[in-house]
Amino acid sequence: MSSVLRPASTGHDPSTAGAYRPVSSHLAIAPPVSVVIPAMNEAENLPYVFKTLPDWIHEVVLVDGNSTDNTVEVARELWPDVKVVEQRGKGKGDALITGFQACTGDIIVMVDADGSADGQEIVSYVSALVSGADFAKGSRFANGGGTDDMTFIRRLGNRVLCAVVNRKFGARYTDLCYGYNAFWRHCLDKIDLDCTGFEVETLMNIRVVKAGLRVQEIPSHEYLRIHGTSNLRAVRDGLRVLRVILQERSNRRALRSRSRTHSPLLDTVRGKVS
């Protein structure tokens, strides 16, 4: 995939006006970028989230998980062109899948609504994608990353589960359960997401490896949630993540067995024997 990250022109060319979006004084991009934000009762945090989003992004898709506060109203005040999508199911995975379906950009970025992510980092994700990666995966433990919001139990669990995924699927991840990622839209056809909860990030990370997509980790800093409490439960959701890992491993073995059983070469040999 050729790079479309180019130096921004210093002069005005009517033939290319609107074709590129200025990212900085030195860079401009052609692909439209959609940012998906799943939110439920995050009205107090949205001002912090939207404040860091770059103005060159193509669209913001807010997936409202049946909020009982004024989450939607606040989002529309902060970003008048925001696309609001109502979530019909439950869970973060379901919200993200709903948001992905509503995106019109070539690049999709997923950002949490609790104020823990810095939208200014999006340029690093987009840079990785236009430079050849299919999937830009945020990592709090890559060199240059960090976190202010992880207990010892969550850190240990993340490390263990990450090691299991690396060993079982041949990945080289430094972080597994992080919700700040970006990818080209075509990746959705290859990973076919089908989960509803917090395990969605793990499922994505496993399936991009299984699909042979090019992954680049992006150092990212996770800040403390600003207001409210998280719906994440370390033990409960850790078990759901482990279940996804085991299911994906089992599916991989089944596919290998099926491919050996129904290989064209084996069918040819059987035909000669019969």
Give a short summary of the structure.
The protein has 274 residues and is of the alpha/beta class. It has helices spanning 46-51, 71-78, 92-102, 122-130, 152-169, 187-191, 200-210, 234-261, 264-273; strands at residues 6-7, 21-22, 27-29, 33-39, 59-64, 83-86, 107-110, 135-139, 146-147, 181-184, 215-219, 221-222. It contains nine helices and twelve strands.
What is the overall number of helices? 9
Element order: H for helix, E for strand: EEEEHEHEHEHEEHEHHEEHH
Distance between the termini: 47 Å
Give average pLDDT, whole number: 84
Q: Give the biggest sheet.
A: 7 strands, mixed
Shape assignment: globular
Strand order of the largest sheet: 6-5-4-7-10-8-11
The number of strands is: 12
Q: Which regions are unreliable across 5 or more consecutive residues at pLDDT < 50?
A: 1-17, 261-274
Q: Share of helix among residues?
A: 25-40%
Radius of gyration: 20 Å
Classify the secondary structure makeup into a structural class.
alpha/beta
* β-strand amount: 15-25%
InterPro entries: Glyco_trans_2-like, Glycosyltransferase_2, Nucleotide-diphossugar_trans
Organism: Streptomyces glaucus
Domain Glycosyltransferase 2-like: 34-185
Family: Belongs to the glycosyltransferase 2 family.
